[in-house]
């Protein structure tokens, strides 16, 4: 049964591929990701420099400063709850990750553009290199903050778990067996948790954005190359997927820094 | 059975079964949110600000299943 679905396969292949080439002496670099990242950097830094001069005490409604203050307060409230007074130390990292991921995700709502003669079919957050790099940054950040605040051996001492409380809460000779056993168990769980945090942070962002991109490609392949009779139905579905993609982009941009904040708070927490 | 058949079957089963859990989870979360919103309409802002991140986190589990599916389809050899 010839369904004519070859174009769908081609569109999906185009959606998941990157333009690779040599760059600055390295082979096989995703050039479109690098170009998009530079565009995002120019936008973010330029925007920040422009906004610095025009900060108002009471921002106008529906302005950019109002939106930024809203999102800053979103993170700042949660950081204040989790971290108390030290929230402002960690806010720059959290908000920067948010801005970077948000700009990247929002690029994905545009059609495929051609910058500097190189075709860029999608945002840089659909590249697993970017998401893994951001996740590595988050994992190194919260571990580093743990080491800075508690010393290297203080941070290492968290891995086997709360051994002192366990020791004092079990009576009798059983504690000589139970406490080392629980220590080894906690060590295993905490080590796996580090890896699981890295994988889940990167895969969540990558999967959401790349999945949305693939679904859009499939719908585009079905819509444009479908018979005229089905056009009214088939042409409106991508719009809803695009809207869901917009919501998912913003939600994923909120979640990544939020989780990083939760991990930092967990690493920096004082003991009762 | 033909290995290519198994690959596509695995991809379909992965996404199909992997969407059941998050479907239940999302429905539960939003249901409780609506219920507590009905009881206390003034907590709309607080519920809103926790609901969307929670939805994103639960949704991510379905995305993991989607990743397995896509990886199965597009892996070569």
Describe the protein in words.
The complex is a heterodimer of chains A (272) and B (77). Chain A is 73% helix and 6% strand. Chain A is mainly α and 272 residues long. Chain A has one domain (6-268). Chain A starts with 5 loop residues before the first helix and ends with a helix. With 77 residues, chain B is mainly alpha-helical. Helices cover 87% and strands 0% of the residues of chain B. Chain B has helices at 3-18, 20-39, 44-74. In chain B, helix 1 (3-18) runs antiparallel to helix 3 and helix 2 (20-39) packs antiparallel against helix 3. The longest helix of chain B has 31 residues, at 44-74. Chain B is elongated. Classes of the chains: A mainly alpha (272), B mainly alpha (77). At the A-B interface, helix 8 and helix 9 of A face helix 3 of B.
Largest sheet of chain B: none
Overall outline of chain B: elongated
Rg estimate of chain A, integer Å: 24 Å
Q: What does the average pLDDT of chain B come to?
A: 88
Total number of helices of chain B: 3
CATH A-level architecture of chain B: Up-down Bundle
Biggest contact: A-B, 18 and 14 residues
The CATH superfamily name of chain B is F1F0 ATP synthase subunit C
Q: Beta-sheet strand percentage of chain A?
A: 5-15%
Largest sheet of chain A: 2 strands, antiparallel
Euclidean distance between termini CA atoms of chain B: 16 Å
Order of helices and strands of chain A: HEEHHHEEHHHHH
Strand content of chain B: under 5%
- Average pLDDT of chain A works out at 83
User: What is the count of β-strands of chain B?
Assistant: 0
Compressed to H and E, one letter per element, the order of chain B equals HHH
Flag low-confidence runs of chain A.
none
Percent helix of chain B, as a range, is over 70%
Put simply, the count of helices of chain A is: 9
């Amino acid at each position: 049964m010839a369904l004519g679905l070859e174009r769908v396969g081609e569109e999906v292949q185009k959606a998941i591929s990157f333009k690779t080439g040599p760059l600055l002496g390295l082979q096989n670099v995703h050039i479109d990701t690098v170009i998009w990242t530079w565009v995002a950097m120019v936008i973010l830094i330029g925007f920040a420099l422009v906004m610095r001069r025009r900060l108002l005490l009471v921002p106008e409604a529906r302005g950019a400063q109002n939106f930024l203050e809203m999102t800053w307060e979103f993170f700042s409230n949660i950081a204040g709850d989790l971290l108390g007074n030290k929230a402002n130390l960690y806010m720059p990292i959290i908000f920067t990750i948010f801005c970077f991921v948000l700009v990247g995700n929002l690029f994905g709502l545009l059609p495929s553009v051609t910058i500097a003669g190189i075709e860029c079919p999608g945002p840089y957050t659909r590249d697993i290199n970017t998401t893994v790099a951001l996740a590595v940054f988050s994992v190194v950040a919260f571990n580093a903050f743990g080491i800075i605040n508690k010393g290297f051996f203080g941070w290492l001492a968290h891995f086997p778990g709360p051994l002192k409380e366990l020791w004092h809460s079990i009576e009798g000779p059983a504690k000589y067996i139970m406490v080392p056993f629980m220590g080894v168990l906690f060590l295993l769980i905490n080590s796996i948790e580090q890896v699981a945090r890295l994988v889940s942070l990167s895969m969540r962002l990558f999967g959401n954005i790349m999945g949305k991109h693939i679904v859009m490609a499939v719908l585009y392949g079905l819509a444009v190359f479908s018979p005229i009779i089905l056009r009214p139905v088939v042409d409106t579905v991508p719009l809803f997927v695009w809207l869901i993609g917009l919501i998912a982009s913003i939600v994923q941009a909120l979640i990544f820094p939020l989780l990083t904040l939760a991990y930092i708070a967990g690493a920096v927490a004082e003991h009762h | 059975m033909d290995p290519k058949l198994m690959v596509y079957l695995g991809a379909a089963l992965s996404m199909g079964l992997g969407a059941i859990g998050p479907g239940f989870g999302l429905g539960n979360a939003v249901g409780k949110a609506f219920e507590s919103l009905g009881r206390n309409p003034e907590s709309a802002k607080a519920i809103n600000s926790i609901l969307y991140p929670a939805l994103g986190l639960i949704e991510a589990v379905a995305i993991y299943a989607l990743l397995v599916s896509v990886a199965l389809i597009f892996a070569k050899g």
